[in-house]
Amino acid sequence: MKLSWGLFFSSLYCSASAANPTVSPETARLIIAQRLGLSRFHSVEHADADAIRHINTYGGRQQKLFGGYDADRSRAHLLMWIEDGDEEYPSVVTSDEPGLLQGFRISDTPSTADNDRLIQDFARQADSLPGMPDPKKRTYKSAFEIESVLPSTSRLDTYNDYLNVLRVDKTSNIAREELGRLFTVITNKAEEVGFAVTMVTMPASGKHSKRAANLWGNYALPLAKAPRHQNPEAFMSINTEPSSSPAPPPSDLEDFPVTISQANNTGPVRGILPSCFNSLSACQKQTHGCSGHGECKLLHKGKGSGSDRQSLDCYGCACVPTKEHSGEDKGMESKQKVTYWGGPACQKKDISVQFWLFVMVGVVLAFLVSSGIGMLYSMGSEELPSVIGAGVSGPVRK
C-alpha cells in the first residue's frame, strides 16, 4: 500500500517558495552533497550556469571567509529520505534558517536501488571526513536532540557525529498526519538547536521512473576502510580508580601513548590528552576541571548495554570564552578582554583570528609593494615622446 503523503508534501512544497524550479537528478545530487558538506567528492566540472545558480541558491548556509562567522554554529544536518510516496515527481524541501523553507523538484525518478546506493555513498563520504571544529559541542549532541522527537519505531543513523539520516518507507507505518506533525516538530527542534534539514521524497518506482543507468551521475568515493561509526567511542580509560564494571572491548586508541601529569590537580594540564573520557569524574580529574575554562559534558552516548555493549559513554570539555576587566573605565563603557579557549582540556588559547589578521596584512603589504615596483618599472621602460626633440636641429654643414 502506498503512503498517503502526497497532499501533505504538496502543501509543504508550495509553501516553500513561490517559484520552484525543476532540476535534473545530477544537479539535485550536487545540491544535496553541497548541503551535507560533501562537495569535495562531487565535481561541478560539467555543470551549466543554471546548475551553478541552483547550487548557490539551495546549497545551504554559505561558509564565511576563514570560517569566522561559523565558529560556534552547529554543523549537524538531518537528511530525511522518504520512499514510495504518492506524489507525481520527486521533490526536495530544505530548511536552514528559522521560518525559511525552500524547495525544488527533480525531473526524473531514480530507482529505489539507486537511491539506496546514493545514501550509502553519502554515509561513506561523511565518515571519511576529518572531525569538524565545534567549540560548544552542539554537533555532537544533535543525534540525541533529533532522536528525542522521533517515533520509537524510527531508526536514526549518525555518521561522523554530524550527519543524521532518517529513512522512511512503506514499512515505517507513518500516516500522512503523523508525517506532517513529525516534520513540524523536527523543524522546531532544528530552530532551537541550530541544525539544518533536507527532506527528499521519492514517488513509487512506477511513476515517471526511468530505467536509465546511473541517473544520479558519477562522483568520487573515499578509499575503502573500516567505517568509523561502528566503534568510534571505545577510548582507553585513563582512570586509575578500580571499576566493578566489565572491561569494554579493546580500541585502536590503546596503542597510542597517553601521558598525563597527575601530580597537581590545580596546575596546568600537561602531556597528551584523549578527546574522550569514560566518566564525568575522570574528565573533571584529568582535565583539572577543564582548566577552569569550561565544563565536562556528555559528548557521545555509548552503544549497547550489558553483554552487548560495544562502546562507552564519551565525556569531554565544552570550552567557554573568559572575560577579563582591563584598563580604566571611561563613562559608562567598561574595557573587557575576551579570551577564547580550545584543546581537549580548554588549556590552549584560540588565536585563529589574530593569525588570519596577520596573514591578511602580510598578503596586502606584499601585494602593494609588488604593485608599486611593477608600476615604477613600467614607467621607466616607456619611450620619451618625440615632441621633446622636435625643436632641436643638427649642425649646419658648410
Task: Name some characteristics of this structure.
398 residues, alpha/beta, seven-stranded mixed β-sheet, two-stranded antiparallel ribbon, 13 strands, 27% helix, disordered N terminus, Vps3844_N, Vps3844_C, transmembrane helix
Structure description:
- The chain has 398 residues and is α/β, with parallel strands linked by helices.
- The protein has two domains: 6-217, no CATH class; 230-317, no CATH class.
- The chain is built from eight helices and 13 strands.
- It has helices spanning 6-16, 25-35, 49-58, 112-128, 142-147, 176-193, 280-286, 352-380; strands at residues 22-23, 77-85, 91-95, 101-106, 156-159, 163-168, 196-203, 294-300, 314-319, 322-325, 336-339, 341-342, 348-349.
- The protein has a seven-stranded mixed sheet with strand order 1-4-3-7-2-6-5, with helices on both faces. A two-stranded antiparallel sheet has the order 8-9. Strands 10-11 form a two-stranded antiparallel sheet.
- A hairpin with a 5-residue loop joins strand 12 and strand 13 (348-349).
- Helix 2 (25-35) runs parallel beside helix 3 (49-58).
- The chain is flat.
- The termini are far apart.
Helix content: 25-40%
String of helices and strands: HEHHEEEHHEEHEHEEEEEEH
Spatial sequence of strands, sheet with the most strands: 1-4-3-7-2-6-5
Note the gap between the termini. 117 Å
Layout of helices and strands, plus pairs?
Layout: H1 6-16, E1 22-23, H2 25-35, H3 49-58, E2 77-85, E3 91-95, E4 101-106, H4 112-128, H5 142-147, E5 156-159, E6 163-168, H6 176-193, E7 196-203, H7 280-286, E8 294-300, E9 314-319, E10 322-325, E11 336-339, E12 341-342, E13 348-349, H8 352-380
Helix pairs in contact: 1-6, 2-3
